[in-house]
Amino acid sequence: MGGIDAGQVLAWITGIGTLVVGLWTLVGRSKDTTFARVVGERDRLDKRVGELEKGREEDRARLDRVEAELEALRLDHKTLLDFLRDICSGRFDSDWVKGRARDLLDRFGGGGTP
Hints:
Elements: H1 6-89, H2 94-108
Helix pairs in contact: 1-2
């Protein structure tokens, strides 16, 4: 008879089963590896974004300090220009000018006598 015997059926089942398991492992591992790689990359990027945000906050605080100092210097500059205008106007005597100069030197930390 030309039929298929039990040994051939078992061989076919074993071959197909091995092929299916092999393909499943190959495809499944690929997805898991890709997923793990994506998760790892996302974690790395999250960490980097956190570092950048912290750096941005530090830079913002530093900028605020510099802007405050710049505003103080601008006001000091205006005060000195006003003093020079007062001197040039001739409305004030020499004692007042010297007293005001001492005041400004003390205020700006220059010390000494004019």
